[in-house]
Design a protein that fits this description.
five-stranded parallel β-sheet, 20 helices, globular
Length: about 475
């Protein structure tokens, strides 16, 4: 199984090609290179890359012309344009035609790598099948059924059967869909299943986490901005609403969107138009919105934090995902599936789950739902020393092993030191206690995980339960310096 993200770099500058191969090393990535448009197009068809890094100036054809050929072949593959000085406006014009992003030469690795990771993540969501039961070939296609197994929507309990029926009912319709459910219930996978079974499956798919982006940046991310519209806006930017014209936009954690942004989104839903930040010209867009949240939107409407008119627009069709603790024997099926899947990925032997282990899994409340289950199974396999999963291999939180670190003087001292630090910050009148403490915890957690994985970002992000772009973003924000980015 080849599940590595693949990138095609098309540029006649050997220094750029070498730089990308060094910055995206094996085995985390697979990089293909071409020095002209003709061989680039051939490589695109042969290798089916997850993303493309394309220079505007090529010896045999303009990159602006090539991007149209690439999009005619597969519109779901993100293309990042590289431009020289003075050609940024040309690149921005091309973005209106479907480019994912652009970057101006010369650039540093720290500038290009987040864009590449973001493009690869977007490609994964659009092209990797989110398969339903007994549906090995979803409409959206994909590289390999095996590669899609982690994104299989499992379950046979009555609530999940209704979820599958709902996906079937709404996927081919043009209705806006609202997906409700607790954190970790696979709302993103259901959104992708709807997209991949829709009539827009061969068009672009973008996802935005509304809770992870500050309001000022979220507006630009959604709608774009004009040059000079705010400090730092040195070029025009095309937003996801424009890039997704004809495609699908997934807005995760929409319950955390500010009232101002809710008003702007309502206009998109009602009038199919928007304006860029700093702009005055309405821009039309034919985008399908799929939204998701773990919040109770009816309560949010009552307290005034969520607009009722937006709720009714989003609520054309609702799918509610049950928490894992209410899904009965689905957990048995899912545990067996994920143990087999991750054992292969981690190179561990797996034959069966001992009955006592399964009882422990069934008794757990699973506040993190499917995402927590996947993390627990990975931890268990890494700890396992045999092919039969016995209770002793489960994480200590399941109570099958003593937890000496909880009572260890060093652990007690660390907790007391943290508590004293928090008390001091509160007494000093700090308004950033929560973020400061979380940053310090993340700094320790990510540093130790990078050490444990030898700075392998793919393995570290998988074991931390976050995406590679999110991990890279946290590394930069925390000022960490792993040996290999």
């Amino acid at each position: 199984m080849n599940d590595r993200p693949t990138l095609l770099v098309i540029d006649d500058d050997p220094l750029i090609l070498q730089c990308m191969q060094l910055c995206l090393p094996e085995p985390d990535y697979q990089v293909f290179t071409s020095t002209n448009a003709a061989t680039g197009m051939e490589s695109f068809r042969r290798h089916e890359p997850d993303a493309v890094l394309l220079d505007v100036q090529l010896p045999d054809q303009s990159g602006l012309a090539l991007i149209h050929e690439l999009r005619e072949t597969d519109r779901r593959v993100p293309v990042i344009l590289m431009t020289g000085h003075g050609t940024a406006e040309t690149a921005i014009t091309a973005m209106s035609g479907g480019a994912f992003e652009y970057i101006t030469k010369p650039f540093e690795p720290d500038e290009i790598l987040p864009l590449i990771d973001s493009a690869l993540e977007t490609s994964r969501m659009a092209r990797r099948p989110a398969a339903l039961p007994n549906d090995p070939k979803p409409t959206g296609g994909g590289k390999s059924p095996v590669a899609a197994r982690a994104d299989l929507v499992l379950g046979s309990c009555p609530q999940m059967i209704e979820v599958f029926r709902s996906i079937g009912r709404v996927a081919s319709r043009e209705a806006t869909v609202l997906i409700l459910g607790e954190t970790g219930t696979d709302k993103e996978v259901v959104a992708r299943a709807i997209y991949q079974h829709s009539q827009r499956h061969d068009q672009v798919f973008h996802a935005i986490n509304c809770a992870a982006i500050p309001e000022t940046l979220l507006e630009s991310e959604l709608f774009g901005h004009e040059k000079g519209s705010f400090t730092g806006a040195d070029q025009r930017r095309v937003g996801k609403s424009e890039l997704c014209d004809g495609g699908t936009l997934f807005l995760d954690e929409i319950g955390d969107m500010s009232p101002v942004m809710q008003t702007k989104l309502l206009r998109v839903l009602q009038e199919k138009e928007f304006e860029r930040v700093g702009g005055s010209r309405p821009i039309k867009t034919d985008v399908r919105i799929i939204a998701a949240t773990n919040r109770d939107l009816k309560s949010a409407m009552n307290d005034g934090s969520f607009r009722s008119d937006l709720f009714y627009r989003l609520n054309e069709f609702t799918i509610e995902l049950p928490p894992l603790r209410q899904r009965g024997c689905d957990l048995v099926e899912m545990a067996e599936h994920f143990f087999a899947l991750y054992a292969t990925q981690l190179g561990k032997d797996f034959v069966s789950i001992a009955p006592e282990t399964m009882q422990g899994l069934l008794a757990h409340p699973w506040p993190g739902n499917v995402r927590e289950l996947q993390g627990v199974i990975k931890q268990t396999l890494l700890k396992a020393s045999g092919p039969v999963i016995v209770p002793a291999f489960l994480p200590n939180a399941f109570g099958y092993e003593s937890e000496p670190e909880i009572h260890h003087p060093v652990a007690i001292g660390w907790r007391e030191g943290l508590a004293e630090d928090v008390r001091q910050r509160i007494a000093a009148g700090s308004f950033s206690v929560s973020s400061d403490v979380h940053d310090e915890a993340d700094r320790i957690l990510i540093s130790e995980m990078l050490k444990a994985t030898g700075n392998n970002l793919s393995e570290a992000s998988s074991r931390l339960g976050i995406s590679r772009p999110t991990l890279r973003s946290r590394i930069r924000a925390l000022g960490l310096r792993p040996d290999r980015m």
